[in-house]
Write a structure and sequence with these properties.
With 154 residues, this protein is mainly α. It has seven helices and no strands. The longest helix has 26 residues. The radius of gyration is 15 Å and the shape is globular.
Length: 154
C-alpha cells in the first residue's frame, strides 16, 4: 500500500516526516489509541470479542504496519482487513464515529499539527471506505448515504 496523493491544502507525507513522523511515532499512536479503545464502552466490547487478550501485541504490530504502509509507504502491511470487518454484524455508524473520535483525540494529543491532520484525513478515508464496503456487503442501498458526522471525544 503506497501513500495516497494529498488533496490540495491537505498535509503531505513529506511535511509530516519533516515534523517527525516515523515508525516510532506511529507505534506510539497505535498503542495509545488501543489503550483508549479497549476502555471505551461502545467499541471496546467489539474489539474484546475478537482480539484475545494474548493477541493484542500481534494485533497492534499489524495495525502499526498498516499505518506505516499508509503514511510512509513502507509496504510492511499485507493483510486483508475488509473481510474481517464485514463479518462484524454489530458494526454501525456509531462505532465508526467513536473510532474516529478516539483516533482524532489520540493523534491530536501525540502528533505535531500537520502530522495529526494527515493521520485524521487518512483515518476518515479508511472509515468511509470500510463503512461503504460493509454496507454493500450487507446489501444496503447506498444512494444518497450521507458521510459520517463527527463525534466529539470526551
Amino acid at each position: 500500500m503506497s501513500p495516497a496523493p494529498a488533496q490540495p491544502g491537505a498535509p503531505t507525507t513529506e511535511e509530516a516526516i519533516a515534523e517527525g513522523l516515523n515508525e516510532a511515532l506511529i507505534r506510539r499512536v497505535v498503542h495509545r489509541f488501543y489503550d483508549l479503545v479497549r476502555a471505551d464502552p461502545l467499541i471496546g466490547p467489539v474489539f474484546h470479542a475478537r482480539v484475545a487478550e494474548g493477541h493484542w501485541p500481534e494485533h497492534m504490530d499489524k495495525i502499526t504496519a498498516f499505518w506505516s504502509s499508509a503514511l510512509l509507504g513502507t509496504r510492511s502491511y499485507s493483510g486483508k482487513p475488509m473481510p474481517k470487518h464485514q463479518a462484524i454484524d454489530e458494526l454501525e455508524d456509531a462505532h465508526f464515529r467513536r473510532w474516529l473520535a478516539i483516533f482524532r483525540h489520540t493523534v491530536t494529543e501525540l502528533c505535531p499539527e500537520r502530522t495529526a491532520a494527515l493521520f485524521i484525513a487518512r483515518s476518515e478515508r479508511v472509515a468511509e471506505a470500510f463503512r461503504m464496503n460493509i454496507a454493500m456487503h450487507r446489501g444496503d442501498i447506498l444512494t444518497f448515504r450521507p458521510p459520517l458526522t463527527r463525534e466529539e471525544y470526551p
